[in-house]
Amino acid sequence: MKSQPRVPPRPSSSSTFFARVYALVRRVPRGRVVTYGQVARALGAPGAARTVGWAMHVSPESVPWHRVVNARGEISLRPTTGYHEQRARLTAEGIRFDRSGKIDLKKYGWKRV
DNA sequence: CGAATGACCAAGC
DNA sequence: GGCTTGGCCATTC
């Protein structure tokens, strides 16, 4: 066993920023997506996109984490982490991917943030 | 408190 | 269009 890189942070202890991230992501309607940076800005932290990503990493099941993609409209996850699942969920909601595996944010991006 | 981590972002080549 | 570099921010040990 190798030493664990870092113990995954628990959302329970961080009920400030993470909680807001979850609250916002829960508002994202089905069939729509938002970007990490978009969420960060909506919360008043323009540069906290990475933190939002971390929040998603430990998000509870009640949060539609799959509706959060990167600024390019791509799934930020790696095939080994859950890319597969996210893409499947989004497809199930009617979102289409182009040949490069990108989503048209102009079309599916959630404008209300 | 210093150092490390992460599902990011924008700018350059 | 794809790879590299630097910067940002919140949280954890």
What does this structure look like?
By secondary structure, this protein is mainly α. Helix content is 35%, strand content 4%. It has a two-stranded parallel ribbon with strand order 1-2. Helix 2 crosses helix 3 (49-57). The longest helix is centred in the N-terminal third of the chain and has 10 residues, at 17-26. It is globular. The N and C termini lie far apart (43 Å). The chain binds a DNA duplex (13 and 13 nucleotides) through residues 5-7, 9, 13-14, 16-18, 35-37, 40, 45-57, 65, 68-72, 75-78, 81-83, 86, 100.
Largest sheet: 2 strands, parallel
Strand percentage: under 5%
Poorly predicted runs of 5 or more residues? 1-13
The 3D shape can be described as globular
Average pLDDT figure: 88
Helix and strand succession? HEHHEHH
The overall strand count is 2
Strands of the biggest beta sheet: in what spatial order? 1-2
- Give the number of helices: 5
Specify the helix fraction band: 25-40%
Q: Please report the distance between the alpha carbons of the first and last residues.
A: 43 Å
The structural class is mainly alpha
